[in-house]
Amino acid sequence: MAVIGGGITGLCAALALSRRGASVAVLEAHTIGWGASSRNGGMVLTGLKIDAATLISRYGLEHARELFKASVDSVDSVDQLVRSEQIDCQFTRRGHLSLASKPAHYIGFERAAELLARDFSHPTRLVPRAGLRAELGSDKYFGGLVDEASGGINPAQYVAGLARTARARGAMLRADARVQRMERQGAGWKLTTARGVIEAAEVLVATSGYTGPATPALRRRLLPIGSYVIATEPLSDELAREISPTGRMMYDSMHFLHYFRLTADQRLLIGGRARFVPENEHTVRASAEELRAGMLKIYPQLRDVRVAYAWGGTLDFAFDTMPHVGRIDGYHFALGYAGHGVALATHLGLAVGEAIGTGALNANPFARLPFRGAPPGLQAGKDWVLPLVAAWYRFLDWVE
Ligand SMILES: Cc1cc2nc3c(=O)[nH]c(=O)nc-3n(C[C@H](O)[C@H](O)[C@H](O)COP(=O)(O)OP(=O)(O)OC[C@H]3O[C@@H](n4cnc5c(N)ncnc54)[C@H](O)[C@@H]3O)c2cc1C
């Protein structure tokens, strides 16, 4: 069995396959964990990119319930995995706080809280504007919604721990092994990699936002979107307590959102789509300035705090902004997490690894979603698409 991509999805699948006694090779183009899995904000979140009401209107109540439940279960999957494999990655479960950037968005939160309780039996708690100071040291927002089920993690430690665990269970992990070509060979596969040729009975593609020309059917179904992060120098105990007394994961309600949290070593980590396009040295530098400006609008009290680190990575968005798992052109895949991949890549990576060869994946709620390609002309690799998408989201942020 060959797994292409050494991030959370690929490593969790390799772990599950190894537990079943399968012989597994993980082929990673760079170093293991190089992609989004080691560079994310470490937010282990319930829910999906699209809200609960849209889930119901698109897929009907029963299917929407299953999809939402899977998102909540995915946080438990991380929790159980971290405990059972004793992965040292600062995992804590202090919940998340969605923040209303406009008064109308708080009214949306009220409806969402009601719907989540009624239709999904999922408890959340509204925090009106007057009560927000108990949650964060900022007056920028118009209220919030707390979901206690979410958690936070150190992503680099998590992915390193997954790699150690998968290797200990017998998986073979190969860095610098970009898969350049995939060909059918009888009932199996012949993969040409930067390190030589490998034959495999089954292949799982777990390349997420870095999906490339070796798998064109997936590439035209994904939009790779850049996301950027800065982390400050460690804050004093007093300042850390002021900006985030509860230590929750936080994000605002804009399309061009900011997500932020305290790290275990008391830095403020704040990320956003700042530049939208996939990362390079220039976009990381420009995004760091934009993110710092954004940070000071939320927390003016951090004006004398130095930004110590800045980085970027690429997210995987399907055109319906939903995760997808299944089989295409004879190989397996799991991707499209749209900013919720820490939990969902764990959950779906494990699910694929447990199900390959059994047919059990057909029952997975994400496997039953249609996975359509990009509209003509909007396929990945066309550089003019992303600025258009970015302009559309900026317009929505302005009008909504
Ligand atoms: C800046 C940033 C912040 C984020 N914050 C959060 C967050 O707070 N919470 C959350 O839930 N999600 C977040 N995400 C999303 C989350 O990190 C991803 O959804 C998740 O890590 C996807 O994991 P993966 O294993 O599928 O993909 P990745 O970790 O991206 O791994 C894919 C791997 O495939 C390899 N690859 C590609 N092509 C080939 C090939 N041909 N041959 C071999 N290898 C190949 C790449 O080198 C890469 O290492 C964030 C993402 C970014 C970029």
What does this structure look like?
α1 (8-19) packs parallel to α6 (155-168). An 8-stranded mixed β-sheet has the order 5-6-4-14-15-16-13-17, with helices on both faces. It folds into 3 domains: 1-92 and 151-221 and 319-369, 3-Layer(bba) Sandwich (FAD/NAD(P)-binding domain); 96-148, no CATH class; 223-318 and 377-400, D-Amino Acid Oxidase, Chain A, domain 2 (2-Layer Sandwich), CATH 3.30.9. The protein has 11 helices and 19 strands. It has helices spanning 8-19, 36-39, 52-59, 61-84, 103-120, 155-168, 216-219, 237-243, 281-298, 341-355, 385-399; strands at 2-4, 25-27, 43-44, 96-99, 125-128, 143-147, 151-152, 172-174, 179-185, 188-193, 196-200, 203-205, 222-232, 249-252, 258-262, 268-272, 307-318, 324-328, 331-335. The longest helix has 24 residues, at 61-84. It is globular, with a radius of gyration of 21 Å.
Topology of this protein?
Blueprint: E1 2-4, H1 8-19, E2 25-27, H2 36-39, E3 43-44, H3 52-59, H4 61-84, E4 96-99, H5 103-120, E5 125-128, E6 143-147, E7 151-152, H6 155-168, E8 172-174, E9 179-185, E10 188-193, E11 196-200, E12 203-205, H7 216-219, E13 222-232, H8 237-243, E14 249-252, E15 258-262, E16 268-272, H9 281-298, E17 307-318, E18 324-328, E19 331-335, H10 341-355, H11 385-399
Parallel strand pairs: 1-2, 1-12, 2-8, 4-14, 12-19
Antiparallel strand pairs: 3-7, 4-6, 5-6, 9-10, 10-11, 13-16, 13-17, 14-15, 15-16, 18-19
Helix pairs in contact: 1-6, 1-10, 3-4, 4-10
Residues 4-10, 27-30, 34-37, 39-43, 45, 178-179, 206-210, 212, 214, 227, 229, 271, 312-315, 335, 337, 339-343, 345 line the site of flavin-adenine dinucleotide.
